[in-house]
Write a structure and sequence with these properties.
The structure holds two protein chains of two kinds. Chain A is of the alpha+beta class. Chain A has helices at about 20-30, 65, and strands at about 1-5, 10-20, 40-45, 50-55, 55-60, 70-74. Chain B is elongated. The chains are: A alpha+beta, B alpha/beta.
Chain lengths: ~70, ~575
């Protein structure tokens, strides 16, 4: 099922689309989040940031940005 | 020979730098400490080498301040060799930058750090194989303990002595997704991850990031830290610096001043009143304020902060405070200067550096001055209101916080744009390394001494001159009716307001002899805390953000303070 990273319930997620401008895309790409990459949602603060595990590192993403990352729950 | 040290943020680059050069670059366990570029000299293979510590970046195409600076240096071509520092715990993510560096066609050596931590976590990397695959020399080291550096120096010397340095050979696709694909394949070949039971630090990571436990723990940690800072700072003042000043320094100044004849020159140097904190002598107050009053707190504050930094706690705190910060136009990282400001404004202003946009710096600076009474101020508010029930102290603090929050809420609406989204790597916890801590404290204290002290002393000299020409009295006179009419405060308090500029907590205690009513004390406390940042912080702000922004921040500050002191005074009238 397709949803955004902020809303996703599962832990294991596949990034399918990034609805952001050039800047956001670059930021995310350089940290290893790109279309087709696998990420793990670790912690979610209510109305706050989301922590994901990408490759072997943890990354905190503000909610606004997380809503732009479309993921597939598998 | 010029060497650039390039790597992701928080990989231990600064530690490698200090081992190579003996110079003490600052290093912390949070991403993005190095925005200033550090340069150092070293001798390798009998050649004089210049080492440049490039700010940490995840990619050469990055958009942050640090990343732009980094990519500018790296693309300038003005160097001979790249030392690419990679974190063994994050091999895969680190290799993106490595591949981008390969594309530049420059000689390159890889230094893999934190190999001990990786091993403990069950990450097994075959460095020889990685070296084969990438066709480049790799040196694994434990930077914080200095292990592997002798070997590194020898090997690097041999490498640099070769008549022609080998260039990277593997083909790199231009597209970033393609690069990630190659990196995935390489990592699969050279790295094995074994499952290990989570260590104590990993369990601690867990409970300090899960909201239900993280939020109360953060609260406890902040309170404890402030208690410790106050304890250490006050201890140093009362038992070391203040006695030193009074017993050894003052007699010398006294004797020195008796060499001068009464007159203009003597007034300039020693002012009319030589007692520290009462007069504006550059040799008494000018030494007392920065060294005896501020330095101990700065030291205590940096000590606690450096420990929290090295452990890796600050990015987690930023996450916890992110939602709250967004409402006032900052992302979670913006709360760090504010927290520092609760200790002392001076390090608070310094830490504005970690924010990227000017918009965020302005909001954070304004909030820093409005919301947070510094450690000594808070203590004095407690002291002067101690004979009344605690509720009045609480009201004063809540009012200060409330006004600060509302003011930045307004500022957020006024300024164009929107708060950036938080986007920060959460590093694993590390045990703080004593040597590293000493390095860092030394660098920060020196920075404080060289950056802030001359400004404070210069400022005191300036005020003394204004005082000698009676400009200060004139200002006081103009100010008295304002205080009286608007805030219903006695006219004598205007001299305290002037003094408060110099030393705000002392100003609060000086209210005591005036026999003020409870209401008057509460109003004066609020006004004295908010009306203007203290001299030291103004001068540091000037240095960090420039004249224009400093001016706006101070005017905004004064305006808000006047309006809300008036409201406070009027609304308290309803109850008293």
């Amino acid at each position: 099922m397709k949803t955004n990273l902020a809303k996703a319930n599962n832990k294991k997620l596949k990034v399918v689309q990034i609805n952001g401008g050039h800047n956001i895309l670059k930021k995310l790409n350089s940290m290893g989040i790109f279309e087709g990459s696998w990420i793990e949602k670790v912690v979610s603060y209510e109305h706050g940031p989301i922590i994901v595990k990408v490759m072997n590192s943890r990354l905190a993403i503000g909610r606004g940005m997380a809503e732009k990352i479309m993921v597939e729950e598998i | 020979m010029k060497i650039v040290l390039v790597g992701n943020p928080n990989v231990g680059k600064s530690v490698v730098f200090s081992y190579l050069t003996g110079y003490t670059a600052i290093s912390s366990n949070y991403p993005g400490t190095t925005v200033d570029i550090l340069k150092g000299k070293t001798r390798l293979c009998n050649k004089e080498c210049e080492v440049v510590d490039v700010p940490g970046c995840y990619s050469l195409e990055g958009e942050s301040v640090a990343e732009k600076v980094a990519s500018e240096i790296i693309k300038s071509n003005d160097y001979d060799v790249i030392f690419n520092v990679i974190d063994s715990n994050n091999l895969e993510r680190n290799l993106l930058l490595t591949l981008e560096l390969f594309e530049l066609g420059k000689p390159i050596v890889i230094i893999a750090t934190k190999t001990d931590i990786a091993k403990n976590k069950g990450i097994d990397i075959d460095y020889d194989k990685l070296s084969d695959v990438l066709d480049v020399k790799i040196f694994p080291v434990v930077a914080t303990a200095g292990i592997g550096f002798n070997f590194l120096e020898r090997e690097i010397s041999t490498f640099l002595n070769a008549p022609e340095l080998p260039l990277p050979k593997i083909q790199i696709p231009p597209d970033i997704t393609e690069k990630w694909k190659i990196i995935g394949e390489i990592t699969l070949k050279v790295q094995k991850i074994y499952h290990k039971h989570p260590s104590f630090l990993e369990k601690l990571e867990e409970i300090t990031t899960t909201p239900t436990t993280a939020i109360p723990l953060a609260f406890i940690l902040i309170i404890t830290s402030f208690y410790l800072i106050r304890f250490i700072g006050e201890g140093i003042i009362n038992y070391i610096f203040d006695p030193l000043f009074n017993n050894y320094y003052m007699p010398i100044v006294d004797r020195f001043s008796s060499l001068f004849n009464e007159g203009f020159l003597k007034n300039i140097i020693f002012s009319k009143n030589m007692t520290p904190l009462e007069g504006f002598s550059v040799l008494t107050t000018g030494i007392y304020v920065p060294f005896v009053v501020v330095l101990p707190y700065v030291f205590a504050f940096y000590l606690i902060l450096s420990i929290l930094e090295d452990i890796g706690y600050l990015p987690r705190l930023a996450v916890i405070l992110d939602r709250l910060s967004h409402k006032i136009g900052l992302h979670g990282y913006g709360s760090i200067p504010i927290i520092m400001g609760l200790g002392c404004k001076v390090p608070g202003v310094f830490s504005l550096r970690i924010l990227e946009s000017n918009r965020e710096k302005i909001i954070a600076a304004s909030l820093l001055f409005l919301i947070s009474p510094c450690m000594p101020q808070s203590a004095m508010i407690f002291a002067i209101l101690s004979k009344y029930p605690l509720v009045y102290t609480v009201i004063v603090f809540i009012y200060i916080f409330g006004v600060g929050i509302s003011a930045s809420y307004v500022l957020n609406k006024m300024l164009k744009g929107k708060a950036d989204d938080l986007f920060v790597e959460i590093p694993p916890y590390h045990k703080p390394v004593f040597k590293n801590l000493v390095f860092k404290m030394r660098l920060r204290i020196t920075q404080f001494l060289f950056d802030a002290v001359p400004f404070v002393m210069g400022g005191i000299l300036l005020i003394n001159i204004l005082d000698i020409f009676s400009i200060l009295d004139l200002l006081s006179k103009y100010f008295a009716p304002v205080l009286n009419k608007i805030f219903s405060l006695p006219a004598q308090t205007s001299s305290i307001v002037m003094l408060g500029f110099l030393k705000k907590d002392v100003a609060i205690t000086l209210l005591a002899p005036f026999n003020l009513s409870l209401k008057e004390i509460m109003v004066s406390c609020f006004f004295l805390v908010t009306y203007m940042p203290c001299l030291a912080s103004i001068f540091v702000l000037l240095k960090e953000l420039g004249k224009k922004i400093t001016f706006y921040v101070i005017v905004f500050n004064l305006l808000i303070s006047l309006i809300f002191t008036f409201i406070f005074s009027q609304s308290l009238r309803l109850f008293f």
